[in-house]
Amino acid sequence: MVSKLLASFVSLVALFQGASAAPSDTRVLCPDGRNFASNAACCALFPLRDDLQKNLFDGGRCNEEAHESLRLTFHDAIAISPALEAQGKFGGGGADGSIAIFSHIETNFHPNIGLDDIVEKQRPFLQRHNVGVADFIQFAGALGASNCPGAPQLAAFVGRKDATRPAPDGLVPEPFHTPDQIFDRLADASNGEFDPILTVWLLTAHTVAAADDVDPTVPGSPFDSTPGVFDSQFFVETQLRGTLFPGDGPNKGEVLSPLRGEMRLQSDFAIARDSRTACEWQSFVNNQTKVHDMFQFVFHDLSILGQNIDDLVDCTEVIPVPKPVIGRTHFPAGMSARDIEQACQETPFPTLPTDAGPKTAVPPVRD
Ligand code: HEM
Ligand SMILES: *[C@@H]1O[C@H](CO)[C@@H](O)[C@H](O)[C@H]1NC(C)=O
């Protein structure tokens, strides 16, 4: 805040002196001699960004590591509970890096299954760059998502306080939880901000997602047919009638999916059909602006849970602006409006074209 005020004061002075300085000229040149930043605190993120893009995200792809890095932001941030604190217990610190700092404890919590993998892949980057752990986790997730066409430019802040103790178990939602359990947990973590509607917005992340551990016999089973694109296909495909399992299902937290190779979480299925959220779920279908804007909004707040925004510096400028969405919203080949399980009572399902060709089968996401 103070530095922002100072920056605008400096640019005002420049104007009064008749200089042609625009506010953007108040940016500082980083020690690398190449990048300019609105705040010197952002400078460390440029070399980190370039290193992650090259060596974790395969030269800037929406790859499995990008997906896992985005998932990790949620599992670190959501572990905070004012309700536990009210009972005199430690409730976790939110987006405080605890999942990586105490990974030997937290990645053994059941809902965090599989996250040990991305924590260990990220660790060498953490060690060679001068960035806090909490800031690193949220930055890596925002950067990974930026490689997925159609994604918003997600917020990146620095200055978070790192955890000094692990979060307690039991705070991360599971796919076998009921909508009530999930809505209550997200509301608790956010002091009421994340209501059922914003929970739908948060679940937009599952448009670039796959499961390795729900059914370990078919790792990499995607949640929609376009796991490399941040589009609204997830909202279409979760509304289709389920007919099969990608592997030897049903496993715990899994329900029938509509496409060969696709994984459907019981929680996504239930929230897509719950009377409190069905119309909001459907409203994302074919509305890329909404997909983009609503996820940008909720990620900002998710990424600073447990932190005081006044202590943070906004470095979102370091995150590349993602490419526009690829493709148009459609029914997968072999499917049509007849395969929709209409759950929103107020509005009919949008009219969509059907992809040409034989019935869509979805290949697994691999490294
Ligand atoms: C609120 C209830 C949620 C539940 C029950 C849930 C559950 C799950 C499960 C079971 C998986 C598969 C993990 C595996 O087997 O590999 C998954 C993947 C994923 N989740 Fe969620 N999730 C929720 C919310 C979110 C939110 C809010 C985000 C936003 C950051 C998110 C981001 C992801 C991503 C990106 C993946 C894909 C990871 C990969 O492809 O490796 N999830 N989620
Ligand atoms: C898309 O969503 C936005 C945001 O909720 C809304 O204002 C707009 O009317 C929607 N567009 C369409 C075509 O439904």
How is this structure best described in words?
The protein is mainly α. The protein has a domain of 150 residues: Orthogonal Bundle (Peroxidase, domain 1), CATH 1.10.520. The strands form 4 sheets. Strands 1-2 form a two-stranded antiparallel ribbon. Helix 2 crosses helix 8 and helix 3 crosses helix 8. The site of 2-acetamido-2-deoxy-beta-D-glucopyranose has 3 residues, from helix 14. The site of 2-acetamido-2-deoxy-beta-D-glucopyranose (NAG) has 3 residues, from helix 14. Its EC number is 1.11.1.-.
What characteristics describe this protein?
single chain; binds 2-acetamido-2-deoxy-beta-D-glucopyranose; two-stranded antiparallel sheet; 8 strands; 14 helices; Peroxidase, domain 1; oxidoreductase; mainly alpha; globular; binds protoporphyrin IX containing FE; 367 residues; two-stranded antiparallel ribbon
What is the topology?
Layout (H helix, E strand, L loop, with lengths): L1 H15 L11 E2 L6 E2 L7 H11 L8 H14 L4 H5 L11 H4 L1 H4 L8 H14 L4 H14 L10 E2 L20 H11 L6 H7 L7 E2 L9 E2 L10 H5 L16 E2 L8 E2 H8 L4 H6 L4 H15 L10 E2 L53
Antiparallel strand pairs: 1-2, 3-8, 4-5, 6-7
Helix pairs in contact: 2-8, 3-8
Protoporphyrin IX containing FE (HEM) binds next to helix 3 and strand 4.
